[in-house]
Amino acid sequence: MTIYIPTPLRAYAGGKDEVEVGAATISEALHSLTQTYPDLRKHLFTGEGKVRAFVNLYLNDEDVRYLPEKENSQVSGKDTLSIIPSIAGGAPSSLLALQ
Amino acid sequence: MSTLFLTKAVRNAIRSHGEETYPHECCGALLGQPSPKGWRVADFVRAGNTRTDSAHNRYQIAPIELVRIQRTARERGLEIAGFYHSHPDHPAQWSATDFAEAHWLGCSYVITSVTKGKAAVTNSFLLAGSTEEDKRFEQETVQVEDRDGDFEEEVALQESNSTRNKR
């Protein structure tokens, strides 16, 4: 399968924006990816080995969190896995109007 | 200090987006290519703000939209260079929420203050650092490229000083 690497993580994946891995499940794919590029591990996983909360994983167009088998979902060679850090924010809550 | 290169068209468009969504925050992605000085933005993509519960002071881009934006960028030979959003009636400075929710290391975060419906200051902040633990925002120079390829420089402005320096 093909794993798409987001801009901020390419420096830790040999500068690549996509990586081909052979895997039967999403977990295996991520394991293979981080075996090849160990520096990615701390950016993707917590110290306990969980995917960091702000890291979104999409199998094709499906959020892995909502797949019945989650990261144990089966994958094929034609599947794609997108790694997408979340993007959010906003102005301060206090109402300090501009002068 | 790094530099964010914007075309006038993109700069004007993202500011207009903030005026359109006022008093709510707008948001979107910047597509471009890296250069030694900083990102050169070639285009932008508007995104929907999923924080409809508090759109006046929060924004969030749906991850599936980011997946599609990343796909589009790749097909065009571009990268996600950063993101933009507006601060309605608040300064164009990053907030604690902006910082806590910033995870695209090496990318530019552009903020436009929109005062009473009119776009005011546009600033850019590079999310520097190599990990979540040492990340930090560094203000960037925003350099605007006009149609003829010349550059006029907008020195990154502090909200308290809206004077623009051109050269």
Secondary structure layout plus pairing:
The complex is a heterodimer of chains A (99) and B (167).
Chain A: E1 2-4, E2 18-20, H1 26-36, H2 41-44, E3 55-59, E4 62-63, E5 80-85, E6 87-89
Parallel strand pairs in A: 1-5
Antiparallel strand pairs in A: 1-2, 3-4, 3-5
Chain B: E1 3-7, H1 8-21, E2 27-34, E3 39-47, E4 59-61, H2 63-75, E5 79-88, H3 96-100, E6 108-115, E7 118-128, E8 136-145, E9 151-154
Parallel strand pairs in B: 1-8, 5-6
Antiparallel strand pairs in B: 2-3, 2-5, 6-7, 7-8, 8-9
CATH topology of chain B: Cytidine Deaminase, domain 2
From the alpha carbons, calculate the radius of gyration of chain A and give it in angstroms. 16 Å
CATH superfamily of chain B: Cytidine Deaminase, domain 2
CATH class of chain B: Alpha Beta
Give the domain tally of chain A. Answer: 1
* Tally of individual helices of chain B: 3
Order of helices and strands of chain B: EHEEEHEHEEEE
Q: What portion of residues of chain B belong to β-strands?
A: 35-45%
Q: Tell me, what's the shape of chain B?
A: globular
**Number of discrete domains of chain B:** 1
Main beta sheet of chain A: 5 strands, mixed
Name of the top-level CATH class of chain A: Alpha Beta
CATH fold-level assignment of chain A: Ubiquitin-like (UB roll)
The two chains with the largest interface, and their residue counts, are:
A-B, 31 and 50 residues
The overall pLDDT of chain A, averaged over residues, is 92
Radius of gyration of chain B: 15 Å
| Strands ordered across the widest β-sheet of chain A | 2-1-5-3-4
Query: For the record, what is the CATH homologous superfamily label of chain A?
Result: Beta-grasp domain
Q: Describe the largest sheet of chain B.
A: 8 strands, mixed
* Count of strand segments of chain A: 6
Multimer state:
heterodimer
